[in-house]
Amino acid sequence: MKPFFRNKLIASGLFAGLLASLSPSAARAGETIFVANGGGNTIGAYTTSGATLNAALISGLRGPVGIAVSGSDLFVTNETNASIGAYTTSGATVNAALISGLIAPIGIAVSGSDLFVTDEIAGTIGAYTTSGATVNAALISGLASAVPRGIAMSGSDLFVANEIAGTIGEYTTSGATVNAALISGLSEPFGIAVSGSDLFVTNNGTGTIGEYTTSGATVNAALISGLSTALGIAVSGSDLFVTSIFTGTIGEYTTAGATVNAALVSGLNDPEGIVISGSSVIPEAPTWAMLLTGFAGLGLACYRRAREPRAA
Prior knowledge:
Layout: H1 3-20, E1 32-37, E2 42-47, E3 52-58, E4 64-70, E5 73-78, E6 83-88, E7 93-99, E8 105-111, E9 114-119, E10 124-129, E11 134-140, E12 148-154, E13 157-162, E14 167-172, E15 177-183, E16 189-195, E17 198-203, E18 208-213, E19 218-224, E20 230-236, E21 239-244, E22 249-254, E23 259-265, E24 271-277, H2 285-307
Antiparallel strand pairs: 1-2, 1-24, 2-3, 4-5, 5-6, 6-7, 8-9, 9-10, 10-11, 12-13, 13-14, 14-15, 16-17, 17-18, 18-19, 20-21, 21-22, 22-23
Helix pairs in contact: 1-2
């Protein structure tokens, strides 16, 4: 093999190794956790291994609670000023008041070009486009006494956690009621996540996470217990990520109920909504510096080796 090509292969292999070992942010194929900090009025970004990418990726919000991701876009419900803001996953503002005039928006879910938003005071689920147009501000109504909170989607079905009623309701994205009390007997359910045919629900009242099927059957009503004010929940593969306002943490658990790290991320300020995206956040300067320095060193080493005289 010619020295030039051999050195090129060496450089490529070492460069790939450098990329793989940069930091925990390379874990899980670049997945990023975005969390809404209601107390700090920020959106923080972290890796699924717990490393901080940017604790205040987006700031200046007004009581952020719910968060949804679609491609490179984040949509955030601001309970205090009754609006929904749109931002990029790199932290740029698209429209801080993409949708306004709501009462108390909490949960949010996105599907294609549609947004579905729960309003706990109005007792509605509204439908909007990701460009901010209103499709139906009261697509589903009559939930005021139930207090709708978290919302999740599966195909053409919406699953809504009703905190006061202690139920999970099922509806279609066209507004039809499938079962207003698909699951009942819960204790202040707040967050909800769907994975395949399974629903995972945080019960704030009992400090548990329950697992159910999308048809309403109970798999394990206390899959995970001993939590403190568990609110937001997101699922990625076989892992669950759960926010706790009381402890200011994001905990990681398996979908089988095992604890991976109860304080994967700590020091948060009233974390509520949480979402996981495959889109990576631009690393901060130190990461790029390490990358460029390492690659420059590899290039210089290969250049020198290529110029070395070969033995006769």
